[in-house]
Design brief:
Strand content: 15-25%
Largest sheet: 6 strands, mixed
CATH class: Alpha Beta
CATH topology: Rossmann fold
Shape: globular
Number of strands: 8
Helix content: 25-40%
Number of helices: 6
């Protein structure tokens, strides 16, 4: 019987959603039964062998709907393999400096769901298109001199997904 995987995410502009979909495609292509859905639409996690959760980082934290997902499913997640991916706006060569912020955000999420112990955490560079954000967000990004562009490394995303599949086989 094939392992089952839920890939769930929160995404404001679609960047994290596209990464979640790529992870789902990679795992599905490896023969795993995979579902991909927004964190707010997940009602149950009981039937899954692995839950992959993705969120962009805003202000040093995961999105609130992902934190709510962790709290709502806290008891079930204690007995599941959980993997987390976080997405930042910086180009991939600048992500090393953001590692602490991303790891801290995942640690805070684990406080909200104390029994959850992620088996893996990946940090991916994101994308920034000023036309896809609201006025206030655009002004904040302008003040930070945020680089416009798509910095996602699709090979790294697929490689991480492959590593998750190997963890299920072990």
């Amino acid at each position: 019987m094939a392992h089952t995987v839920l890939v769930t995410y929160s995404s404001r502009t679609g960047v994290t959603k596209e990464i979640a979909e790529a992870i789902g495609e990679a795992l599905g292509g490896a023969g795993l039964e995979t579902s991909v859905s927004e964190a707010t639409s997940v009602k149950h996690v009981a039937g899954y062998d692995l839950i992959v959760v993705g969120s962009p980082i805003y202000g040093g934290a995961l999105r609130e709907d992902v934190l709510t997902f962790f709290e709502a499913h806290e008891l079930d997640l204690m007995n599941k393999r959980v993997a987390v991916f976080t997405v930042g706006m910086l180009p991939s060569h600048d992500m090393a400096g953001a590692k602490g912020e991303h790891e801290g955000a995942v640690e805070l999420a684990c406080i909200r769901a104390p029994g959850m112990k992620p088996v893996s955490h990946a940090i991916f560079a994101g994308a920034y298109d000023p036309d896809k954000v609201d006025f206030v967000s655009r002004k904040l990004m302008d003040r930070k001199n945020a680089p416009t562009g798509d910095y996602r490394d699709w090979d790294a995303v697929r490689a991480w997904a492959t590593g998750l599949q190997e963890r299920l086989a072990a």
